[in-house]
Amino acid sequence: MTNKEFADFLLPNVKHTWEEYEAMYPERDLPEGAIVTRYAPSPTGLPHMGNLFQNFMSMVFANQTGGVFYLRIEDTDTSRTVENGIEKILDAIRPFGINFTEGAISETEYKGNYGPYIQTQREDIYKAYAKKLIEEEKAYASFLSKEELDEIRARQSASKERIGIYGRYAKDRNLSKEEVIDRINKGESYIIRIKSPGNFFNKIKYTDLIKGTIEMPENDIDEVIIKSDGLPTYHFAHVIDDHLMHTTHVIRGDEWVSSVPKHLQLFEILGFKPVRYAHLAPLTKNDNGTIRKLSKRLDPEATLAFYPENGIPKEAIMLYLATVTNSNFEGWLDQNPNGKISDFKFDFNKCSSSASTLYDLPKLYNISKNYISRLTKDEVYDATLEYAKVYDEELKDILEKYPDYSKAIFNIEREQKKPRKDYEKYSDVKGQIWYMYDELFEKYRDDAGYDYQSITDKDEIRNIINTYIDKYYDDNDDKDTWFSKIQNLCDELGYASNMKEYKENPDNFKGNIADVSTVIRVSLTTRSMTPDLYELLKLIGKEKIKERFNLI
RNA sequence: GGCCCGUUGGUGAAGGGGUCUAACACACCACCCUCUCAAGGUGGCAUUCAAGGGUUCAAAUCCCUUACGGGUCACCA
Length: 552
Known about the structure:
Low-confidence stretches: none
Strand content: 5-15%
Oligomer: single chain
Helix content: 40-55%
Radius of gyration: 33 Å
CATH architecture of the largest domain: 3-Layer(aba) Sandwich
Shape: elongated
């Protein structure tokens, strides 16, 4: 029996040869230096922040080199695959503006010339290459049962040996074809293992794009490549797919670093050009002084749904991920306030090689706050409305009822060189401006509690606001006139209209212009901290100001 | 346990033999500014790079040991 016949016997009914598959997926026609990379999740659950980060990096490196970023579904563990897993992944990623140039687009469809992009639909391909290896005597059928495997592991562990199927433990390696055929005909189940040519005492070196040069022992483990259900293991599928799809760079979590010797060996055995690896450290957080991995169970911010739910702009998240990717991005953005992420040249050398990447929510919020402050009033209005449509009906109604008025509110101290930074997320908006709308003011003013600061005497408060509205306030005043009238009010009532004078002789006055302004501010809004008072008064208008003052 | 990786201020982090008594950002503190807050301005905030040892004229940067943190050792990905 020839090797070819033997391979046919072990893996029957394979439709194409590996040469045919090579021909079906020719080299991509891309510019020099183009990076082809992918996101390759298992449809076993929802993606988390770490995945988004990985996606962000992959997309950015592919885009800036004129390359390709595609989605491949690794569903070879059929027992863990969840229903609609692909849709769930797509839905979770969609709100963030991650764009795949090719790959799976639904449970059944894909776009691109290198598909299918779902591994269970590629079974024939993996088998074709497994047959090649069997023919070349680089892979073999192994009959080790679960019990035998457990026993070997237990023995190795007891004698403090390395664990795994290698060397003398790879006992099916040299079975004769006749014996293999005989056992299969008797109904024994088998899998295909690689016949590892490696020696544990040799070192291999590889250069990780992020972690730098790493030296590790050669792989000498006879790794499984085809499981008993006929599907490939991750290791085999990775190497075949990334070769056929002409992936140049694999950006993945660093739990894979220790598998690199296996993967590199597989590339070599198959005669493929290896991909370049970039291994990402896990995202961690500082939990009361201890650094630990971000956890979907413990940390809401690990879950992608957290962001849209809280009205955190996706652009801010991208900006944050950009600074996590290359920390010099932040400085660049400072120099180029209108710069876009796509204008920045990301560099693998600038990726942190530390053992963990801190995921810092306060920092994200800071970036978000700056981002929102740079938006125009129309953009803030639109984005807030979009958020409110899904998560805050009351806010949605009020924004839709008063579009122009709302935009005028958003425009206070906005669209200028150093804009006001009020909101770090769209869910902050209502809490900051509710008092500008009569409906909300009536509803919430009692609960809000008037936050008077230094002047708390009721009669004095009434005296200040009544004098002000009757004698001084006019909707048509410009800002300077408005301010000088506030000063006049102070002079009339015995408060210092000039802060410097007040600081020099505080005893000469009942208080100062800041105290008086605060009384007006609080009486109008209930709050001691608001945007520019002049703008607020003007927007609300004399009649309504009067009504609100009468409530005091 | 074996094998890998990491450890710089309150936080993130730059820097990979001399220009480092350590960039930058966030946080914090103080003062300044014709109203509060925000913004802005000025100044402050690691004599030291996990600890110890070594190489060198010279170390945060190279080497060794220790400690701590992370990852991995499946017919899971």
